[in-house]
């Protein structure tokens, strides 16, 4: 199983308008990456990819903008670290399936 498969069902609510674009980019980036053995390893991979994609650590707590996710609207391109820390990454880790 590839990690990208756990991104199939998107959350019903997001933090900011850039979050769905980041979700889809992470899904694409992890399309050829095998599911790791443990949820902890998955969490580590997700946090590292989040940082590579955004330029910010998951521990950065203030929202920020990623220019390539700007597609119009007030919070266009905005990323909510709170969403990713509290909801997005925990949701994905809960979907871990041991290989």
Commentary on this structure:
This protein has 99 residues and is mainly alpha-helical. The chain is built from 3 helices and 2 strands; from the N terminus they run ααββα. A two-stranded antiparallel sheet has the order 1-2. Helix 1 crosses helix 2 (39-54) and helix 2 runs antiparallel to helix 3. The longest helix is centred in the middle third of the chain and has 16 residues, at 39-54.
Extract low-pLDDT stretches: none
Strand-pairing-aware structural class: mainly alpha
Order of helices and strands: HHEEH
Strand content bin: under 5%
**Cα radius of gyration in angstroms:** 13 Å
- Cα shape: globular
The proportion of residues forming helix, as a percent range, comes to: 40-55%
Provide a count of the helices.
Answer: 3
Mean pLDDT: 93
Strand order of the largest sheet: 1-2
The biggest beta sheet reads: 2 strands, antiparallel
Strand element count: 2
User: For the terminal residues, how far apart are their CA atoms?
Assistant: 7 Å
Key descriptive features of the protein:
99 residues, 2 strands, mainly alpha, 3 helices
Record the SSE blueprint.
Layout: H1 19-29, H2 39-54, E1 64-65, E2 78-79, H3 81-94
Antiparallel strand pairs: 1-2
Please outline what is shown here.
41% of the residues lie in helices and 4% in strands. The protein is mainly alpha-helical and 99 residues long.
């Amino acid at each position: 199983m590839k990690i990208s498969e756990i991104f199939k069902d998107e959350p019903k609510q997001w933090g900011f308008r850039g979050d769905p674009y980041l979700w889809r980019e992470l899904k694409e980036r992890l399309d050829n990456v095998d599911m790791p053995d443990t949820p902890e390893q998955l969490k580590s991979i997700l946090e590292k990819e989040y940082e590579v994609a955004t330029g910010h650590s998951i521990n950065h707590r203030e929202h920020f903008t990623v220019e390539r996710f700007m597609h119009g609207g007030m919070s266009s391109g905005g990323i909510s670290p709170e969403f990713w820390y509290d909801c997005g990454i925990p949701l994905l880790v809960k979907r871990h399936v041991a290989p």
